[in-house]
Write a structure and sequence with these properties.
- This protein has 216 residues and is an all-beta fold.
- It has 2 domains: 2-117, Sandwich (Immunoglobulin-like); 126-213, Immunoglobulin-like.
- It has one helix at 96-100; strands at residues 2-4, 8-11, 16-22, 29-41, 44-49, 53-56, 59-62, 67-74, 84-93, 109-117, 126-133, 136-143, 149-157, 163-174, 178-185, 195-202, 205-213.
- A 7-stranded mixed beta sheet has the order 14-13-16-17-11-12-15, with no helix packed on it. Strands 2, 4, 5, 7, 9 and 10 form a 6-stranded mixed beta sheet that branches. A 4-stranded antiparallel beta sheet has the order 1-3-8-6, with no helix packed on it.
- The longest helix has 5 residues, at 96-100.
- This is Gram-negative pili assembly chaperone, N-terminal domain protein.
- Residues 2-119 form the Pili assembly chaperone N-terminal domain.
- It comes from Brucella pseudogrignonensis.
Length: 216
């Protein structure tokens, strides 16, 4: 099962988009689609069923090689004042026939970020901190801006530029007016406080930012 696009980003007044689900298997599959409100509290992602965004159809059957379009619509009449964040969860449902045959079934899940933004968005404004932990650093991003920041290829560096911790690939998102925290494996050598450098990639390109180094 494939899903495209892998991110939905809509700016008001646009309030709807479509996601394509494709079945690459040689057997028919059943797919369930749900949408959840995505928030962050104390650095932890939280998902609750969305009441102001709808998806249709919620369940579909795809033939081998077939595809289906799912509509994602913001139904709320409230103006978008700050970026709103959701997760579109696309699940392949277990096959009843494969269960009966005793076949081990591996089902696929896709989690697609969905964002609704106002026509003008102030952007992300992130303050960083890094606390030494056993085997690495706990890196926290506090975003006082209205827009999320997507973080990948994150490295924690000393003032001299030496990398002391790093994680390749997607690290995560810090949503607007929220905080997120990630453990980054490394040497965790700076236990005396001071400052470190966060080097990473975002949707806007590479960036470097100073981080407060909390004592471990």
């Amino acid at each position: 099962m494939r899903v495209s696009p892998v991110l939905v980003d809509l700016s008001a007044p646009t309030a709807a988009s479509s996601v394509r689900i494709s079945n690459d298997a040689k057997r028919p599959i059943s797919v369930q689609v749900r949408i959840f409100k995505w928030s962050q509290s104390n650095g932890v992602d939280t998902y609750t069923p969305a009441t102001d965004v709808a998806v249709s159809p919620p369940i579909s059957q795809l033939k081998p090689g077939g595809e289906n379009m799912v509509r994602v619509v913001r139904t709320s009449k409230r103006p978008v004042k700050a970026e709103e964040s959701y997760r579109l969860i696309v699940d392949e449902l277990p096959s009843a026939s494969r269960k009966k045959s005793g076949t081990v079934t591996f089902v696929v899940r896709h989690s697609i970020p969905v964002f609704f933004s106002p026509p003008e968005n102030s952007g992300a404004a992130v303050a960083w901190s890094a606390q030494p932990k056993s085997g690495g650093y706990q890196v926290t991003a506090r975003n006082t801006g209205d827009k999320r920041l997507r973080v990948s290829d994150l490295a924690v560096k000393s003032k001299g530029g030496a990398s002391v911790a790093q994680q390749k690939g997607l690290v995560g998102y810090v949503l607007g007016n929220s905080s997120a925290s990630w453990f980054i494996p490394g040497t965790s050598g700076n236990r005396g406080g001071g400052s470190l450098i966060i080097s990473a990639q975002s949707e806007a390109g590479p960036f470097n930012a100073q981080a407060n180094a909390k004592g471990g």
